[in-house]
């Protein structure tokens, strides 16, 4: 008599095919919101790229072809890079680019250092009035620059530097000071919100190890805020690099002005070569694109982490 197989209460699959027991995956239907978001992004991308491509097309056309057939027409006589050469030489792009570097690099560095120090004090040193100071720094961004141009102009022409007879007006230092002043509030607001997301346990461990406030800021907080600093550096570089208002108002010498003034120099009083101006504008945009591509990963990481942490 053969022994009966005991029932262990297990559900034995009828087939040995592992794919048969796998749950069937069904593709979710595409929602209306996804389609609308995709269509919106496509439309915005086209609206963003078309003007750039049109500017490139105008920059590659000879001025004679544009004057004869108009801007919106097929190319006649071929395309040329002579407009880029003329823009670089006539507009003195290289000279004005050096002026822009002298203004932009110190502005970005000083603004980020000061903003990170202020944000560290406001977020890590608990004292009365910290919220008020943060609101005060943020409110500075709401003040229109054009509303205070008259008193600022008078202040820059009257405030003397340590050098006898020298004033802030018509100097690189004056543009650096005014750009740092107007960019500081936004940087403090962003960095303070980012620093609040850093766990307090990290600072408690640092204090146990004997770290003072300087060490906590310089060796602990700044490395942790690297994505936010990179994002702000990209934005500040673009904003200060493209500044034309302050450079025109607070700078009288044309050879000291930034690269945006080089484009203005190509603009004639009665006749303007728009092909050369388009080429100069594309040349002036290259450095900001280089900065973005170099800091692209840190820039995106700073934006994503800033939105995910409260």
Outline the structure in words:
The chain has 310 residues and is mostly helical. It is 67% helix and 0% strand. It is globular.
What is the structure about, briefly put?
This protein has 310 residues and is an all-alpha fold. The protein contains 15 helices and no strands.
Main beta-sheet strand count, sense and barrel state = none
Fold-level CATH name of the largest domain: MetI-like fold
Low confidence ranges:
306-310
**From the 3D coordinates, which CATH architecture of the largest domain would you assign?**
Orthogonal Bundle
**What's the total number of strands?**
0
CATH superfamily of the largest domain: MetI-like
Helix content: 55-70%
Query: Which percent band covers the strand fraction?
Result: under 5%
CATH class of the largest domain: Mainly Alpha
Shape: globular
Order of helices and strands: HHHHHHHHHHHHHHH
Measure the end-to-end span. Answer: 74 Å
Question: Could you name the key traits of this structure?
Answer:
15 helices, 310 residues, single chain, mainly alpha, 2 domains, disordered C terminus, MetI-like fold
Give the helix/strand layout.
Blueprint: H1 18-21, H2 32-60, H3 63-69, H4 82-90, H5 93-124, H6 130-139, H7 149-158, H8 172-195, H9 200-208, H10 213-224, H11 226-241, H12 245-249, H13 259-265, H14 274-294, H15 296-308
